[in-house]
Amino acid sequence: MKRAKTSDSSPKQYVYVVMHETSLGYKQGDSAGVAGVFSTIEDATNCIKRVVSEEYGGLDREDEDTFEVTKRDGLLRWYSNDTREGDTASVYVEKHTLRAPGSEKQRRWDDDVGVGSGVEDGEEGEE
After folding, report:
1. Distance from C-alpha of 54 to C-alpha of 70, rounded to nearest angstrom
2. What whole-number percentage of the chain has pLDDT above 90?
3. Which of 41, 80, 86, 98 has the greatest count of CB atoms below 10 A from its CB?
4. Stated pTM of the model
5. 3-state secondary structure of 79
């Protein structure tokens, strides 16, 4: 009888990043930022609800045709094509795999301002 192969690696862990993007009308520019990073979808969803309530709570049922709420693979997204004065906004969840400590090789820069080769420690950079 063959035994099932067991994995030595621990199960993948995820973080849920809530992004808040706006595009201001009349060529005033775009902005994007992280509204929060969470260990559960539920907390990320509640963050979206809070941000929308605090930032766009003035939108009411009359404005229903200007915003939509969608869910894909359990991840919520709120979007408005007019939050007033031609501005658009999107608040949504991104799912990212949490990487274990040491998963990124140690690298060095050639100077203190972050400019340089970015080679791995122990390697020689090209000249």
Report:
1. 19
2. 43
3. 80
4. 0.73
5. strand
Rg (CA), the chain: 22
User: Rounded CA gap, 84 and 62, in Å?
Assistant: 13
Cα separation, 118 vs 74, whole angstroms: 38
Q: How many CB atoms lie within 10 A of CB 31?
A: 11
- The domain defined by 14-97 folds into Profilin-like (3.40.1840)
Q: Given a cut of 80, is residue 16 above it in pLDDT?
A: yes
What is the structure's pLDDT at 98?
Answer: 94
Dist. CA 87–CA 54, nearest whole Å: 16
Alpha-carbon distance of 43 to 36, in angstroms, equals: 9
36 forms bridges with which residues in the sheet?
Answer: 18
Q: Where are the domains of the chain?
A: 14-97
Per-residue pLDDT tens over the stretch 36-72? 999 999 999 999 999 999 988 866 656 667 789 999 9
Summarize the chain as % helix, strand, coil (round to 5): 15, 35, 45
Helices in the chain by DSSP H: which ranges? 41-56
